[in-house]
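SEVERITY: medium
COMPONENT: batch folding queue
REPORTER: lab tech (J.R.)

DESCRIPTION
The queue accepted two submissions in a row. Attaching both inputs and their returned structure tokens so the on-call engineer can compare them side by side.

ATTACHMENT 1
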Amino acid sequence: MNLLIPILIIYLILLVSICIRIIFETHSTNKTLAYLLFCAFIPVIGITFYITFGVNYWKVKKYNKKSDADKKLLLKIEQHIKQFSEVTVISTDDAVKQNAELSSMLLRDLGSPLTAGNKIKLLINGENKFPNMLQAIKNAKQHIHLEYYIYECNIIGLELIEILIEKAKQGIEVKMIYDDFGSPTIKKKIESRLRDVGIEIFPFYKIQFYFFSNRINYRNHRKIVVVDGCTAFVGGINVSDRYINKNKDDLFWRDTQVRIDGPAVYYLQYLFMADWHFCCGKYFVENEKYFPRIKSFTENSYAQITASGPNSVQPSVMYSILQAIYLAKEEILITRPYFIPGDSINDALKVAALSGLKVKLLVPGVCDSKIVNAASQSNYNDLLIAGVEIYLYQKGFVHAKTMVTDGKLVILGTANMDRRSFDLNFEVNAILYDTKTANELRTVFFDDLQSSEKINKEQWLQRKWYVQFPEKLARLLSPVL
């Protein structure tokens, strides 16, 4: 009993200290309240969770250094990025004119220019992405830069490795970044083999102790491939056999990637170079090898890149999605595997639907996380009441992260609609001001709806209280999921 009192006093002092830190360091009211309630009402576990996952030590130190280094790099290569690519938003193109505020915001916020003269190719699912990407890599003449969250050493992963080794033996520069949390097998199976042939490969901020490190919160979720500075691939597809749907007995994975040929590749090249410096401390020698003069394609698609991470001053990925919703006039089509959008995007979608826009949301019928699925479903009531149509994908697992507005604008990339993508992970999206691509992806969206089940608003709202209760509980945790 005598020992219990000092322990209790120490615990209360720790609890008060943690609560003060939460109040000072957590800017979102929702996240602040969630952490405070979690710490106060779930003794020990709540504090342990916050210390492990909520305290942003690395954002304050390491990622702030990355932000400073990225700015210096951008200043160095700004002329390369803008010299052949920047266009004014004063354009006769309808998609550009309607979304001029969006392109201006990204230029001011990130230094990411709106580029013309691009060639865009949508790649639906891994079975279309990988043959196209592998051929581009085989055709490389100067360099190959790869950055992946998940790289699995199975059939497709090993095939890509053999190609990279062959290109390295030909004297082609090959550099690779992998996320240390998402790609644990690389280190065990192929890292040394790649280095033996001259391929430079580094983990994105190496994790020493997985369980005790909150670095698992700040993951590099980007999937970028740049070939010769003029061709790039970006989207939701990692390197794994699950994406190629080879075995009909396995779960079907529905995902989307885009190939970009043209000056929009420059900013993706810059992102890779910035992440490379963060991983290994090495700067590139910026020259036309990495930013070659690119011819304009007859398709003349307009494109822009948005990216953000724990080092970002603004949540640029979230702001770009918000601005696209604000600027839409007729239709918003959203596909997301994880949908915990927060109040800002939730309210924007409700306002759009109440204003008469057609707003459709496609999400998985079954998510790979029960808690995330419940938290997602907790948003559906208000959206349905406002007039948003929600569809549950039934054919398999929909992992695509896309948005199409008015058949004119496409946002496609790696970011989910949740706090993890907006605040905690390094993400990248391509924004395509292109009617042809938008209508192509719009057709894909409606094809996916044929494999989906539309939620009946009346039936959904009349579900029993004990069915909805777990969703309400999960919603309380949504700021920290």
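ATTACHMENT 2
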Amino acid sequence: MERVAKSLRNKVISPSEAAEFIKPGMCLLCSGFSQIGYPSAIPKEIARLGKATDLFLITSAGVGDGLDGILSQAGLVSGRAPYQGNKWMRNAVNDGKVSYCDYHLSDLPVKLRSSAGPKPDIAIIECLSVDEKGFVPVCSVGAVECFAALCDKILLEVNYSLSDKLVGMHDIYYVDGNCIPIHAPTDRIGTTYVPCDPARILGIVETEGSGEYPKFKETDEISEKLARNIIGFLKQEVAAGRQPQSLRPFQSGFGSVANATLYGLSQDFKGLRMYSEVIQDGALFLIKSGVVAEASATCLCLSKEGQKELFENIDFYRSRIVIRPQEISNHPEIIRRLQIISINTPIEVDLYGNVNSTHICGTKTYNGVGGSGDFARNAGLTIFATGSLAKGGKISCVVPMVSHVDHTEHDVDVIVTEWGVADLRWKSPKERAELIIENCAHPEYRPMLRSYFQRACARCNGQTPHLLEEALSWHERFRTTGTMKPSEGG
């Protein structure tokens, strides 16, 4: 396969030549979703030159060291949107060096097209190949179709290290205000490439970069119990007639808990369908084993071993996986039409079912909201699953009141921990509190939660009882003493 069409060979330049196009104060739109598909050769040269200061960086949902990490460490970024999760960028945001705007991923293209924010100057996109019609994305699409349409100036990194057998797996569709005709996860409605006028391409950089690979924690006892509880709940839903035997299409968030849950599904279900943001190693395993018949996502977020499995068996996976733009993978219309089962991981939940997905103790951002809100608000069944403790038991993940709200109680159906399941559907706030305390909180913290709830009911027995002077005291105790547990005898 010809990676760069002959008619475009005159646009091939070096990374350093490409970096010279980047000027101080520019707004850059860069490809990349999680650690997959971000440009790295050009950002490395931008950082080395160190001249393009005060950059506003917008990605699909990239977190790679080769983009976020290197540019934030060089002190070149002053603004960031919509999702961050790289440790260097996170530190820069929390230190006040970078102004951070967090958005739901389905909203990013809408926000960009509205022209209310910064005007994009240059898009930098990693791709598989490019010709006169456009370019083929890599293992992630994210919002590159939007970036290519909005930017008059585009720099491409053509990555030769990725297999050209990915061609044909993409389905690129532009949202134009009409009904999106997707009625099953692998319905195809677009093109296999991103249309791009060659006149907009400033330069093409040829690379061999392997990039980064996500690393998933080994499945432990907690994640196995979480998976069993989720699967047990879903089996009950099938038995009650609320889900078909093969379940409605499901979405699973990013991370080790989600990966463990996916592996667990293989024990009890067949013929599943997946409509999600990401496909991780666990999902690939389900597809290979026949548990999942078809899958759609905006990113194949695979470990090194997972990518090896994908490319060695690409003909098998190509007929079962579709890679889409994030505006389609996360679109409320499709999520609601398909009645998705949404499974995501919170940082903490409170007695009434509110969820914090992004902040530590209310003030320090850990990551962005990503797509969890897109799915939580619109899914047919919304599940948030987490271990009940963090920091070796110093933090309870069930608290009186969350220190930051990403998903209100109105968008949360089910809470799951290793201790059990709280089905919050059609429950009042007080009924929710009792279920969450008894079914989900860790036994070490249940007496404290019971005491708080009982005293709140006794003093202000309204619809949602709270002791405002105590509601965030657990977080303050952790901030000052390093644990949410009171001192001995306290």
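NOTES FROM REPORTER
The mean pLDDT is 94.
No errors were logged for either attachment.
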